[in-house]
Amino acid sequence: MIITGKIVKGFGEGSFYVGKYGQLFEQALGFLPFAGTLNVKVERKPELKNPITVSPGGSFKPVHCYLAKIGDMRCAIVMPEATRHPKDVIEIIAPVSVKQHYSLKDGDKIECSIE
After folding, report:
1. Where are the domains positioned within the chain?
2. Distance between CA atoms of residues 20 and 102, nearest Å
3. What's the CATH architecture for 2-114?
């Protein structure tokens, strides 16, 4: 499945949550993510099945993850149970900054393939 969308500005909170969940993401997904998320506005939110769920417990809600690729880079779509993003925005984590790696900026189109 291919998901396309436009990069949009986030709330600036991704680094905190990726830091909080980082080791759990590494264990579950096989990579330690860059401290931040890539926010992508999609035309239609994908119907994804069989998530890898990461939950640190306590007051932090679970995050449902789906392995994916952007170009040749492994990444994951993350769908937190608690989010302030509108329904048409997905978040992506990767081992490095996707924006820096591919020289992207807000407003650029991006394509992600679900594994």
Report:
1. 2-114
2. 26
3. Beta Barrel (2.40)
